[in-house]
Design goal:
five-stranded mixed beta sheet; five-stranded parallel beta sheet; about 325 residues; elongated; Alpha-Beta Plaits; alpha/beta; Rossmann fold
Length: about 325
């Protein structure tokens, strides 16, 4: 059964011709048939409300059918919609029709065959337009669902540690905790300096084994209540809560730093050693809490210093806040 609510727009600069076509469609039961007597008006109508089928004359003074089709495809792209385009033509020959198909035209009706071909072509257009728009809708819903899942996802799928989103959430929670109870939030960024070199010599699955080895070792080297995250391929974070700034000493982090650097990781490709750096930023409850992105930036600078010196780089936020904020 035809879909009698199919939205159809007839475009022809000859008012008599467009009226005849619209009348035939309405006599066949179609209820949503509009007429435009110029391509410009047709485009404005389609901007206001898309159509499923466009029936347009090929030869029109302001804009021919191929130019109109180009504009329709631009609208479709912007609106995530598909319009089935049928051109009315007196032209015959492979070259003309081939050019039209290349420009995005879907079908033709020869004017000499109008009475016989119009309704069968509309029936076919209905099925194809419905299929395309159903797929476009399903794809859009799938993309929206994927975006929503990504926004809600807080786990690094390789290691099972929290990801960057989770890490930022936990930093903010730690800040609120020390503001109410006192203490220090310590953000330790561990980076693998030779990760890119490892990518050139090992497969993705082997790198996953290394990442999992680092994650497991971080769990063993930190306290049960410390927060461990993987915020990028080669960067991990451990969030500590300490009682005093004096507790944020080299000895606190050296065990972590040496534990990653001094013992190779067993993988299916053999034992692999990593060159890790550790940059630490400590924030005391007695100072204004920084934005998490500024904390991350400061930790990145400390990590660079660690790469250069080969040891842990520890920075207290109150000593670097002005410099980080103004950079």
């Amino acid at each position: 059964m035809p879909n009698l609510d199919l939205s159809i727009l007839v475009v022809d600069d000859a008012k008599f011709s467009s009226a005849i076509i619209a009348k035939r469609l309405k006599n066949a039961g179609y209820r949503d048939v509009r007429i435009a007597n110029s391509p410009i008006v047709a485009l404005k109508m389609m901007e206001q409300r898309p159509v499923s089928v466009l029936v347009a004359d090929w030869l029109m003074p302001e804009m021919d059918g191929l130019q109109l089709t180009d504009r329709v495809r631009q609208l479709d792209e912007a609106n995530h919609h598909f319009t089935y385009v049928i051109l009315l033509t007196a032209k015959e020959g492979v070259e003309a029709l081939s050019e039209a198909f290349d420009r995005g035209v879907d079908d033709f009706i020869y004017k000499s065959e109008m009475a016989r071909q119009l309704l069968p072509r509309i029936y076919a257009a209905d099925r194809i337009a419905d299929m395309h728009n159903t797929l476009l809708l399903a794809n859009r819903l799938l993309m929206e669902n994927n975006r929503e899942l990504e926004e809600k996802n807080v786990v690094d799928l390789t290691t099972g540690l929290g990801n960057q989103q989770y890490c930022r959430q936990k930093v903010r929670e730690s800040f609120r905790e020390i503001e109410s109870r006192g203490g220090v939030t310590s953000y330790a960024l561990i980076g693998v300096k030779n990760w890119h070199a490892l990518k050139h010599t090992h497969t993705h699955s082997v790198l996953d084994e290394v990442a999992n080895g680092i994650a497991t070792r971080l769990q063993h080297l930190s306290r049960p209540l410390d927060i461990r995250c993987r915020i990028s391929d080669n960067q991990f974070v451990v969030i500590y809560q300490l009682k005093r700034l004096d507790d944020a000493s080299l000895a606190t982090y050296k065990r972590l730093h040496d534990g990653i650097n001094l013992k190779a990781f067993k993988t299916t490709a053999g034992f692999i050693s990593v060159q890790a750096g550790t940059g630490v930023i400590c924030v005391d409850a007695n100072e204004a809490m920084p934005e998490v992105t500024l904390l991350e930036k400061a930790a990145g600078e400390a990590l660079k210093a660690s790469y250069e010196t080969g040891t842990v780089a520890i920075r207290h936020w109150h000593n670097i806040a002005d410099q980080v904020t103004n950079d």
